[in-house]
Design goal:
Elements (H helix, E strand, L loop, with lengths): L3 E5 L6 H9 L16 E8 L2 E8 L9 H15 L3 E7 L6 H13 L3 E6 L6 H5 L11 E2 L8 H8 L4
Parallel strand pairs: 1-3, 1-4, 4-5, 5-6
Antiparallel strand pairs: 2-3
Bound molecules: guanosine-5'-diphosphate and magnesium ion.
């Protein structure tokens, strides 16, 4: 059993940057992972001896009703359902956004374990970075910097703590 950790969030919040950091040299695709689709990117990470699967979802556009964006949103909902734990990324510099609210609503309804993660928080105080995101109703936010690495190890340790 390898826990499946799924990264969700609107475009440009840093999902792929976090994916690359978590998978590092194991960035090779897990090509034989059941249900592989081209809408998601699968990799393997490891904390100590514990391996886990990381899923980078595509863009998430819950307001789009037709075409490719609608298809991507459905794919992301399916990816959430197939997760053991979801890391929901938001952007400390861009601030809270209506798309974040839509995704949060979907995640609250999913019943999945969700860690709210405020990315791009390097150089900011933790308190200032996370303040406005409490209202998403997903518990205490974690401040991280996917590109610098700050907070990433404690985030993934908490994500995997029950496995
Ligand atoms: P995605 O669309 O959610 O996959 O986002 P990307 O990983 O492609 O990142 C979007 C942009 O944000 C890129 O220019 C990244 O370099 C930048 N970015 C990602 N993580 C951080 C971070 O921790 N701090 C800062 N300042 N920029 C970041
Ligand atoms: Mg990406």
């Amino acid at each position: 059993f390898k826990p499946v950790v799924t990264l969700v969030g609107r475009p440009n919040v840093g999902k792929s940057t976090l994916f690359n950091r978590l998978t590092r040299s194991r960035a090779a695709l897990v090509a034989d992972f059941a249900g592989l689709t081209r809408d998601r990117h699968y990799g393997e990470g490891r904390v100590g001896d514990i391996p886990f699967i990381v899923v980078d979802t595509g863009g998430f556009e819950p307001v789009a009703k037709t075409g490719i964006l609608h298809h991507m949103a459905r794919q992301t909902e399916q990816a959430i359902a197939e997760s053991d734990v979801v890391i929901f990324l938001v952007d400390a510099r861009a601030g809270l956004n209506a798309h974040d609210q839509d995704i949060a609503s979907l995640l609250r309804k999913s019943g999945q374990k969700v860690l709210l993660c405020v990315n791009k928080a390097e150089g900011m105080s933790h308190t200032a970075a996370v303040a406005e995101f409490h209202e998403l109703g997903l518990g205490e936010p974690h401040a991280i910097s996917a590109s610098h690495g700050d907070g990433v190890m404690s985030l993934i340790e908490e994500a995997l703590s029950s496995f």
